[in-house]
C-alpha cells in the first residue's frame, strides 16, 4: 500500500485530502500544518509520497521541497490554488525537485476536491512511483542541462524542421532544460505537450520563453508559427496542427474527448504533425506515466520522421518512454543531458 504524508496549513483541507486518499486505498501516515513539520515528518515516516501545499506559515512549500530534497528525497506533489501566483510558486517548487502539481479546484480552501477524487488518487499514485533523484543534481540546481550544443558554430541543419516534445509526470524541468539548450540556429517549429492544468500552462510558457533562444508562448486557436518559435499546448485543450505551408504551422485548439484520460494528449499533436507536415519531423518523449505518445511515435515513424525517448535512469517515471520503445519505432534512447544533441543529429544536414 502507498504511504502518503499530507501537508496543508488548513485543517479542513488536510482532512478532505486525507479522506480522499484513504478512500482510494492510500494510507495517510501523518499530516503536517507547515513546511517545517513536513521536513520533520518526512524524516520520521519516510513516506512514499507527499502532497504539499504551497502557501504555508513558518516554512512555505517551496522551501520545504528544497529542504526535503537535500536531506531526505521523496516524491512530492504540489497542491496549488488556481491563481497566477499559485502557478508561479508551483513551477518554482518543481524547479526545486517536486515531481508534479495538482490544481485545487475552487481555491486554496475548497469543498470541490471531492469532485476530483479519482484524479487526485491516480496522480498521487503516479507520483509515488516516481524516482525523485532521477535527474542529475546540476540540472536540478540550474534548471538547464549542459552547455548548449549551439555553441559549436558552423553547424548546418535541414530546412524547416518541426520538433514535438511530449512529457507528463516529472516533465516540466526536463522540457525546460531541453529548450534552454536548443540552438536557435536549428530553426525548429516547436510544439510542447506537457500534461499540466490549464491554470499553469501560460506561466510555464513564459518560463520557457525566458530561458530559451526560441520565442515560446501558450498556444491560441488559429495561430501560425514559423522557425524559431514554440507553442505550449494549453491545458485542457488538444493541440492540433491543422495546416502547413511555406514552413509555417497553423494550429487549432480542441476540447474533444480526452485521449488516455488526458487533454492535451501527446498522441493527438504528434499524429496531426505526421499527417500535415512534409518536412523533417522529430518527436521526443520524456518522463511520465502512461502510454500517451506511443501512437504518435508510430505516426511520426511512418511519416519518415525520427523518434527519441528519455532513458530510464534520468526519467522520474519511465512509463511514456517505455511504452514508446515497445512500438519498435524509437530511433534512440537517451539520458536527459544527451537529448538536445540527439535532436540535432536528426536534422544535421551532413547526417
TrEMBL record:
Pfam family, one: Response_reg
CDD domains in alphabetical order: CheB_Rec (cd16432), REC_CheB-like (cd17541)
Catalytic activity as recorded in UniProt: L-glutaminyl-[protein] + H2O = L-glutamyl-[protein] + NH4(+); [protein]-L-glutamate 5-O-methyl ester + H2O = L-glutamyl-[protein] + methanol + H(+)
Any Gene Ontology CC annotation: cytoplasm
Domain Response regulatory span(s) in chain numbering: 3-119
Subcellular location field: Cytoplasm
Residues bearing PTM 4-aspartylphosphate: 53
Compositionally skewed regions (Low complexity) per UniProt: 136-149
SMART domains: REC (SM00448)
Species for this entry: Halanaeroarchaeum sulfurireducens
UniProtKB keywords: Chemotaxis, Cytoplasm, Hydrolase, Phosphoprotein
Enzyme Commission no: 3.1.1.61, 3.5.1.44
EC primary class: hydrolase
Record family assignment: Belongs to the CheB family.
Region named Disordered: 128-156
Entry GO MF terms: phosphorelay response regulator activity; protein-glutamate methylesterase activity; protein-glutamine glutaminase activity
InterPro entries (alphabetical): CheB-like, CheB_C, CheY-like_superfamily, Sig_transdc_resp-reg_Me-estase, Sig_transdc_resp-reg_receiver
GO BP: any one term: chemotaxis
Domains (record comment): Contains a C-terminal catalytic domain, and an N-terminal region which modulates catalytic activity.
Main localisation: cytoplasm
Species lineage: Archaea, Methanobacteriati, Methanobacteriota, Stenosarchaea group, Halobacteria
Residue ranges of domain CheB-type methylesterase in the record: 156-350
Protein name, as recorded: Protein-glutamate methylesterase/protein-glutamine glutaminase
Enzyme active site: 168, 195, 292
Record's function text: Involved in chemotaxis. Part of a chemotaxis signal transduction system that modulates chemotaxis in response to various stimuli. Catalyzes the demethylation of specific methylglutamate residues introduced into the chemoreceptors (methyl-accepting chemotaxis proteins or MCP) by CheR. Also mediates the irreversible deamidation of specific glutamine residues to glutamic acid.
Alphabetized HAMAP family for the sequence: CheB_chemtxs
Amino acid at each position: 500500500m502507498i504511504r502518503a504524508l499530507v501537508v496543508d496549513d488548513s485543517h479542513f483541507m488536510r482532512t478532505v485530502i486525507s479522506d480522499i486518499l484513504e478512500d482510494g486505498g492510500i494510507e495517510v501516515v501523518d499530516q503536517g500544518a507547515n513546511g517545517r513539520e513536513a521536513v520533520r515528518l518526512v524524516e520520521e515516516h519516510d513516506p512514499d509520497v507527499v502532497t504539499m501545499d504551497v502557501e504555508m506559515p513558518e516554512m512555505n512549500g517551496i522551501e520545504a521541497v528544497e529542504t526535503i530534497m537535500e536531506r531526505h528525497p521523496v516524491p512530492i506533489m504540489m497542491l496549488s490554488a488556481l491563481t497566477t501566483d499559485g502557478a508561479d510558486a508551483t513551477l518554482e517548487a518543481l524547479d526545486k525537485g517536486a515531481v508534479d502539481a495538482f490544481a485545487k479546484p475552487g481555491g486554496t480552501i475548497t469543498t470541490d476536491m471531492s469532485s476530483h477524487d479519482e484524479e487526485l488518487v491516480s496522480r498521487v499514485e503516479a507520483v509515488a512511483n516516481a524516482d525523485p533523484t532521477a535527474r542529475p543534481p546540476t540540472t536540478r540546481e540550474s534548471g538547464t542541462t549542459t552547455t548548449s550544443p549551439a555553441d559549436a558554430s558552423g553547424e548546418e541543419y535541414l530546412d524547416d524542421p518541426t520538433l514535438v516534445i511530449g512529457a507528463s509526470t516529472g516533465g516540466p524541468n526536463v522540457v525546460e532544460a531541453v529548450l534552454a539548450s536548443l540552438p536557435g540556429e536549428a530553426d525548429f517549429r516547436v510544439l510542447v505537450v506537457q500534461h499540466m492544468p490549464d491554470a499553469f500552462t501560460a506561466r510555464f510558457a513564459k518560463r520557457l520563453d525566458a530561458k530559451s533562444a526560441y520565442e515560446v508562448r501558450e498556444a491560441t486557436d488559429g495561430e501560425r508559427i514559423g522557425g524559431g518559435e514554440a507553442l505550449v499546448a494549453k491545458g485542457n485543450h488538444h493541440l492540433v496542427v491543422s495546416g502547413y505551408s511555406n514552413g509555417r504551422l497553423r494550429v487549432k485548439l480542441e476540447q474533444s474527448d480526452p485521449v488516455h484520460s488526458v487533454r492535451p494528449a501527446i498522441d493527438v499533436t504528434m499524429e496531426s504533425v505526421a499527417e500535415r507536415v512534409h518536412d523533417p519531423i522529430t518527436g521526443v518523449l520524456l518522463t511520465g506515466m502512461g502510454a500517451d505518445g506511443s501512437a504518435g511515435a508510430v505516426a511520426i515513424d511512418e511519416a519518415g520522421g525520427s523518434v527519441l525517448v528519455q532513458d530510464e535512469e534520468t526519467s522520474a517515471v519511465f512509463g511514456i518512454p517505455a511504452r514508446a520503445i515497445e512500438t519498435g519505432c524509437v530511433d534512440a534512447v537517451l539520458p536527459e543531458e544527451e537529448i538536445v544533441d540527439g535532436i540535432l543529429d536528426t536534422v544535421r544536414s551532413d547526417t
